[in-house]
Write a structure and sequence with these properties.
This protein is an all-beta fold. It is built from no helices and 29 strands. The two termini are 24 Å apart.
Length: 405
Amino acid sequence: MNRLVSGLYKKCSFFCLLPIAMIAGNVQAADKTYLIDGSHRDGTRGLTQLANGDFVLNGWTDGRVTKKDGAGWLVRVDKKGKIRWSHRFPNQLNTGRGSQSSGHVVDRDGTIIMALEEYRSKGAYRETGSNGRCTLLRYSPDGKLLHKKVMGNSGIDIIDVIRPLADGTYLMAGETTSPIQKSYNGWLLKTDAEFNVLWDAKYGGYGAERFNDVILTADGGYLAAGRTTSDLGTFRAWLVKMDANGKTEWQQRYREDQYANTIRQVLPVKVDGKEVGWVMAGFTANAPEDPDPRNLWIARVDSKGTLLWDKAIGGAGADVAYVLTQANNGDYLAAGHTQLEDGSLDGYVVAFDASGDVLWERTYGKPIADETVRGIIPYKKSGYVLSGNHKRNGQQDALLITVDK
């Protein structure tokens, strides 16, 4: 592969099925890979770790052709990928479509909060009382349902991110068409412990705005990241800085010279313990006629959202970052997938520092298969854990990879 960051590309191929059986080959001794077989076609979107070392994943299962005809899925596995318990959530809206879990978080008390997205019927957002909703569910660590609440109004309401706050409330972000049902807006809301809405705010115009991430900032406010299409015709990476009540302080769009791009996740940059800005990861897309369709994109901004540096990384295929984390050694890790010359996908991790220097790249995959990373968290002293999807011969399973170093 011809990469913009040359000399760092390293191919790692390995594969494992449950019951666990590591296959010898080009595997580093510290890496372990597991497939989590739910039922039929399975996929994941998020990853967290419990206090005892187990992992929780959310996504979808029982998909026939796509995830949109499957059922939402929440699953707990041990460190070797063995399922301890799992729950599936079929669509209850009688639309003939499926559902998925759009996000989850492990709360301060160890309980698990999950957002369930039930798919609307096609074109339903144009109709009054349209189908499409988000439901929040709280589970105990052993998989017992503790609380459930339908969120939003009569439009399309999706919560992708849930952030527990120190005072026992929650900050959440996603997208909504409520109440006007004519365009998607970025959605930010704050709830109490029972998920009752304390306030909510919508951001954007008559386009398709979405928040993929939101974080707390050092001044007590919030920073939301995603994309906007207002007055553009295509989408641009988008940051919105708010105060503690959700009032906009500033907003910025990025890479106006490109065809399209988006931010998937954002993290703070600190110098001597002081927050001085943020790094972000996602992807940038060139014009449709360009043979280089998408590149993984990383960037850094200062405290006012001014772009300090950005880099597009990738080869001739579609390269995307879905998630971003900071490893225990301080490196930033952006992860997603990269497209190989034969058209298949490999899981892809890029490590970089706050100055934008790319430290290393790694891919994870098996020949004649597609792998995509959708979750990444720090692991041990200098490692990380990846979750995502493995697809081969029409079968798709959840993927878990632990990397010690």
